[in-house]
Amino acid sequence: MLKKNLVTVGIVASVIMMVVVVNKFQPSRIGQQQIVDQDEVKKLLRKAEEIEAEKSAQEVILETKSTFTVEFECSNGTFVVVCYSDWSPVGVAHFKEAIEAGVYDQSRFFRVVPNFVVQFGIAGDPELSAVWREKNIVDEPAKQSNTKGMVTFAKSGAPNSRTTQIFINLGDNARLDGMGFAPIGQVISGMEVVEAINSEHGDRPTQAQAQIQSLGNKFLDENFPNLDFIIKATIVSSEETEES
């Protein structure tokens, strides 16, 4: 869609530019209209630049659909997630990049609320966390509902605030669908492992996210012992298909 928009803008801008050139050779028509035409060209060119910049910034090829499977080896067992780019193109591409960068390895499940969510995704290494918490991605509409087993990026109330934090729905949380929480995948095996993640600290660690970000696992281990964690997140299969 972005590619089509850019082509359309380019064509319109070219046509208007031709009109301006013709006007230069017709003295009776030079004046206010030529100024308006030139302003329209500038506006269209700025719009084209904005569209191209948005596409480049996200580095997402929307013409390609991809599906990949991730195995999460955890301190209490293993679960598997399948992600679908047509659910959330920007989110899925970002999640894959973060997995490959090792963001989720050794990451603690710092928020576990039974029948609601289990949340993770702050890197255990503060230096890695500092890099990735600045990599915000744009919001996307929820194409799937936040039902049990769905995997979704966490975000604040601010627009475009998704970074690396992920939650897995432990119940039917469809009320989140209209609040900017777009599922990117779902647990296809090991949901019993997800539901058994240690919940003794509940929601309390989320009140200390600044300390978790700056001190990493050291802070969590000292203040919230016995948290379950991801030993290793591994992409075990990946498929890409060109859209027709």
Brief sketch in words of this structure:
With 244 residues, the chain is α+β, with helices and mostly antiparallel strands. 36% of the residues lie in helices and 22% in strands.
What fraction strand? 15-25%
Whole-number mean pLDDT: 83
CATH superfamily of the largest domain: Cyclophilin-like
Based on the structure given, which CATH architecture of the largest domain is correct?
Beta Barrel
Overall structural class, as computed from helix and strand content, comes to alpha+beta
Could you please say which CATH topology of the largest domain applies here? Cyclophilin
| Beginning-to-end CA distance, first to last residue | 13 Å
Q: What count of helical segments does DSSP give? A: 7
CATH class of the largest domain: Mainly Beta
Helical content stands at 25-40%
**What topology, given as strand order, has the largest sheet?**
3-4-6-5-7-2-1-8
Total domain units: 2
Number of DSSP strands?
8
Low-confidence stretches: 1-36, 54-63
Gyration radius over CA? 23 Å
Mass-distribution shape: globular
Order of helices and strands: HHEEHEEHEEEHHHE
Main beta-sheet annotation: 8 strands, antiparallel
Description of the structure:
- By secondary structure, the chain is an alpha+beta fold.
- The protein has two domains: 2-58; 65-242, Cyclophilin (Beta Barrel), CATH 2.40.100.
- It contains seven helices and eight strands.
- The chain has helices spanning 2-24, 32-58, 89-100, 126-132, 191-195, 209-215, 217-223, and strands at 64-74, 77-84, 111-113, 117-120, 150-153, 166-169, 183-189, 230-242.
- It is globular, with a radius of gyration of 23 Å.
- It starts with a helix and ends with a strand.
- Mean pLDDT is 83; it is low at 1-36 and 54-63.
